[in-house]
Structures are given as structure tokens and as C-alpha cells.
UniProtKB/TrEMBL annotation:
Residues 61-107 form the Cupin type-2 domain. The lineage of its organism: Bacteria, Bacillati, Actinomycetota, Actinomycetes, Glycomycetales. This is Cupin domain-containing protein.
Amino acid sequence: MNHLTVKNFGKPDEHVDLSGHGHRDMVMLDGMPIELAEFERGWRWSTDVKPMAGTDTCQVHHLGYCLEGHLRVHMDDGTDQDIHAGDAFEIPAGHDAEVVGGGKVVLLDFGKAFDNR
């Protein structure tokens, strides 16, 4: 489409609560999801999202930017990578992730983050 569109995360197209450890809000722009995720201290994908996803690890490819905090990603192949505020990231399918430290993590995800509900 070729028109101006503006959406606000204060009124997302979709909101998902993550077991009290955070939430994900999504807006759609030209058929593409953009997600703003906030993960609180203690959040871990395998604890807070796995029951909803129904898979052993996250099977979604993520492309995004970390606005705040420290996230550790654990890949199925055994490698780990830390993501910090200011980092752009690409995370392939087949991973777990957890908040590190005492603060929350805030991410923007420009991809298919809602495909693993």
C-alpha cells in the first residue's frame, strides 16, 4: 500500500500477557507486524512462553533492536549470545532467552514474533 499510516503501542492491534513477567504488544503496518516487548526480571521464554507456544524452544526468527536491558539468548546448538540496550539483533528459530540482571528488557521486533502462539 502507498499511504501514510500511524499506529500507537498505547492502542496495539494485539496484546499478550506473559504470565505476569511482561507483555508483548503488536501493531500491523502494511501487513507487517511490529512488536514492542517488555520482559520483567525473572522472565524466561521456556517458563513464560513455552506453555503458550507448544514447542520446546522458540521457533520464530526475530529481527529487532534492544531499547533497554540485558537479554541472554541460548541457541539449540549450545551457543549463547548476550543482547544489550543499543544492540540490533537477528535471532534464528530454535532458541530460549532470559532476562539477565535486575532490570527489565524492552525490545522492538520487526518480524513474525506472533507466529508461535
